[in-house]
Amino acid sequence: MSEEKIYRPNVAMIIVSSEYPQKKEVFIAQRNDLTNIWQFPQGGIDEGEEVQEALFREMEEEIGTGAAKIIAEYPEWISYDFPPKIASSMKPYHGQIQKYFLLKLTEDARINLNTRHPEFINYKFVNVEDVLDFTPHFKQSVYEKVITYFRKEGLL
After folding, report:
1. Distances from the Cα of 11 to the Cα of 59, 87, 97, angstroms
2. Residue 110: which CATH number?
3. Is there a domain that residue 1 lies in?
């Protein structure tokens, strides 16, 4: 009998600059705990918290700003499994189930990675076509699916 997999509820964000839609570059940040790993900001949804409330809280906690506007939402929850090395420290979760949003920073947004509990040491905006060159293998299928959806919608 196989054990039931438990997934941690999570929000994730693809962030474009205030120059969108003229520039369709997306924000990625370099993790402070894994060598040369870049990702989209994301974080857990607290019990009783609304999804969009979690989205802006996590954005503030991870990149020091909530100055953004939601452009679109991926229509489904999407999940991935943690690799074994990470899974052991994330018990009881086998992975995360995420709700993705496409956000545009406002002109007055200021990124500040020196947050209360810093998760990132660097960030940059990259062409959407190049995102998968920087991101961890276990997230790439999710990233590709979400990016493809937003591209088909004419948003990226």
Report:
1. 10, 19, 8
2. 3.90.79.10
3. no
**Residue 45 falls inside a structural domain:** yes
Note whether residue 58 is domain-resident: yes
Q: Which domain holds residue 23?
A: 7-152
Of 90-94, 119-123, 135-139, highest mean pLDDT? 119-123
Whether residue 31 contacts residue 39, with contact meaning beta carbons closer than 8 Å, is answered with yes
Residue with tokens 């949804």: 45
Q: Is the Cβ–Cβ distance between 14 and 103 less than 8 Å?
A: yes
Task: Decide which of 19 and 34 is more confident.
Answer: 19
The whole-angstrom distance between residue 106's C-alpha and the CA centroid of its chain comes to: 18
Structurally, the chain folds into a number of domains equal to 1
First-to-last alpha carbon distance for the chain, in angstroms, is: 43
- pLDDT tens for 99-134 read 999 999 999 999 999 999 999 999 999 999 999 999
* 2 lies in some domain: no
State the average pLDDT for the chain: 94
